[in-house]
Automatic annotation (TrEMBL):
<comment type="similarity">
    <text>Belongs to the calcium channel subunit alpha-2/delta family.</text>
</comment>
<keyword id="KW-0407">Ion channel</keyword>
<keyword id="KW-0813">Transport</keyword>
<dbReference type="InterPro" id="IPR002035">
    <property type="entry name" value="VWF_A"/>
</dbReference>
<keyword id="KW-0325">Glycoprotein</keyword>
<keyword id="KW-0406">Ion transport</keyword>
<keyword id="KW-0812">Transmembrane</keyword>
<keyword id="KW-0851">Voltage-gated channel</keyword>
<keyword id="KW-0732">Signal</keyword>
<dbReference type="InterPro" id="IPR051173">
    <property type="entry name" value="Ca_channel_alpha-2/delta"/>
</dbReference>
<keyword id="KW-0106">Calcium</keyword>
<feature type="domain" description="VWFA">
    <location>
        <begin position="162"/>
        <end position="344"/>
    </location>
</feature>
<keyword id="KW-0472">Membrane</keyword>
<dbReference type="Pfam" id="PF08399">
    <property type="entry name" value="VWA_N"/>
</dbReference>
<dbReference type="InterPro" id="IPR013608">
    <property type="entry name" value="VWA_N"/>
</dbReference>
<dbReference type="InterPro" id="IPR036465">
    <property type="entry name" value="vWFA_dom_sf"/>
</dbReference>
<protein>
    <recommendedName>
        <fullName>VWFA domain-containing protein</fullName>
    </recommendedName>
</protein>
């Protein structure tokens, strides 16, 4: 298993080196014209039979390794989100220099034929995927996929973080502004992963915790908690006067208290402020809680078209190592929310921390190939190994520019193939968990409701080890694995015999093994 982890990590590392070298040699050209293979437009023709722009002929052939999907194993192609202009200079330049990854994609596949999808998700929004495959829009002609919202991208691009989201619900936020604010909060939640902790506070003359039962603390940003908070967002309504000073004091106190307990991410901390204006810069509050160290970054989102209070919000963000952006319409939300990830990634970029990240097990039905790449048991359970790509150009190195994230998918069944079952014995089995204690692979992990069906359980990707190893009542085994300890110990378990008619107790030995190439 360790050898397999090493091979996947090395494949990703080669992609990182090639991408950083290609970008180092590239000079940005605002007038660059480059015809690339757009994954949506390839092989498309107009009414006269001519290929569409960016839709040149792209040879696709069924391939056994990819479940007979029509792919091109010589080239990659590029997907651009529907809400982005596919000939934007930033995208065209990024696509141009990232063409050099084609050789590395092919070379990786030659070295390790067990590899499946390899890809580069750009910080500009485009997604280069190998082997090349055609993407089909949904019934509305839209492809909502944005690689920057995927867990593998977020985990590789940023460090774990504690976040307090402050939402202005004063009377001036009525109508469309409050709708945009709620969507902004929802988009921020999309960017949080299992390593992050958060809470949401609405404010006017008083503070209103979105979940009143969780006053004064932070909760893990797992799927269940995020969905719970989303449901409570609908209960917010606008009235009264916005007292931002009270909200800022509360947010700083929560982050300070939570950090002192040793809980949470014990890493980056941030306050997200969503409002239609601020009448003051509140420098006395920042001087009390955040200066001179500025350990808490402030990100300000100005809702609406008016810019009367923009200067105050800009100052607050810049004085606290954050970022300011204005969101005028619902269409602006996603792109503007993503900007904060680039700011939080700067320390990793400046320190050149190329950490290898492995995600929890998941079934990705977002990509078009995932709908078809299925085995006899339904959709494929997989994990992703990813690594960030940084700019090494001298003029940008000190600014900490994240170029994107490279990754490759690893089906869980490939992990299981590496387990020497003949060494485990008749009642023995192997399993793996993430750094959060969630199951990566385990005989008792059943992500689907019915065998052979494709209907997934809502929280299948965040099943804790304690939910299946129930004999581990004191979490001795789970905590040892999460804390990256290795060694052997035994634990009494009950086992049924005679087809479940009788039950007997036995001492089961356990051995914990930590592959060097993995953070699980």
């Amino acid at each position: 298993m360790e050898e397999m982890f090493h091979k996947k990590s090395e494949a990703v590392r080669r992609l990182v080196e090639a991408a950083e070298e290609a970008h180092l040699k590239h000079e940005f050209d605002a007038d660059l014209q480059y015809e690339y293979f757009n994954a949506v437009l390839i092989n498309e023709r107009d009414k006269d039979g001519n290929f569409l722009e960016l839709g040149k002929e792209f040879i696709l052939a069924p391939n056994d390794h990819f479940n007979n999907l029509p792919v091109n194993i010589s080239l990659s192609d590029v997907q651009v989100p529907t809400n982005m202009y596919n000939k934007d200079p930033a995208i065209v330049n990024g696509v141009y220099w990232s063409e050099s990854l084609n050789k590395v994609f092919v070379d990786n596949f030659d070295r390790d034929p067990s590899l499946i999808w390899q890809y580069f998700g750009s910080a500009k929004g485009f997604f280069r995927q190998y082997p090349g495959i055609k993407w089909e829009p949904d019934e509305n002609g839209v492809i909502a996929f944005d690689c920057r919202n995927r867990k593998w991208y977020i985990q590789a691009a940023t460090s774990p973080k504690d976040v307090v989201i402050l939402v202005d619900v004063s009377g001036s936020m009525k109508g469309l502004r409050l709708t945009i604010a709620k969507q902004t909060v929802s988009s921020i939640l999309d960017t949080l992963g299992d390593d992050d902790f958060f809470n949401i506070i609405a404010y006017n003359e008083e503070l209103h915790y979105v979940e009143p039962c969780l006053n004064g603390t932070l909760v893990q940003a797992d799927r269940t908690n995020k969905e719970h908070f989303r449901e409570h967002l609908d209960k917010l309504f606008a009235k009264g006067i916005g007292m931002l000073d009270i909200a800022l004091n509360e947010a700083f106190n929560i982050l300070s208290d939570f950090n002192h307990t040793g809980q949470g991410s014990v890493c980056s901390q941030a306050i997200m402020l969503i409002t239609d204006g601020a009448v003051d810069t509140y420098d006395t509050i920042f001087a009390k809680y955040n200066w001179p160290d500025r350990k808490v970054r402030i990100f300000t989102y100005l809702i609406g078209r008016e810019a009367a209070f923009a200067d105050n919000l800009k100052w607050m963000a810049c004085a606290n190592k954050g970022f300011f952006t204005q969101i005028s319409t619902l269409a602006d939300v996603q792109e503007n929310v993503m900007e904060y990830l680039h700011v939080l990634s700067r320390p990793k970029v400046i320190d050149q921390e190329h950490d290898v990240v492995w995600t929890e097990a998941y079934i990705d039905s977002t990509l078009p190939q995932a709908q078809k790449l299925a085995d006899d048991q339904g959709l494929v359970l997989m994990t992703t190994v990813a690594m960030p790509v940084f700019s090494k150009q001298n003029e940008t190195r000190s600014k900490g520019i994240l170029l994107g994230v490279v990754g490759t998918d690893v089906p869980v069944k490939e992990l299981l193939k590496t387990i020497p079952k003949y060494k485990l014995g008749i009642h023995g089995y192997a399993f793996a968990i993430t750094n959060n204690g969630y199951i990566l692979t385990h005989p008792e992990l059943r992500p689907l409701y019915e065998e052979g069906k494709k209907r997934r359980k809502p929280n299948y990707s965040s099943v804790d080890l304690s939910e299946v190893e129930w004999e581990d009542r004191d979490d001795v085994l789970r905590n040892a694995m999460v804390n990256r300890k290795t060694g052997k110990f035994s634990m009494e378990v009950k086992k049924t015999v005679d087809k479940g008619l009788r039950c007997g107790a036995l001492q089961r030995p356990w051995e914990i093994f930590l592959p060097r190439e993995c953070n699980h």
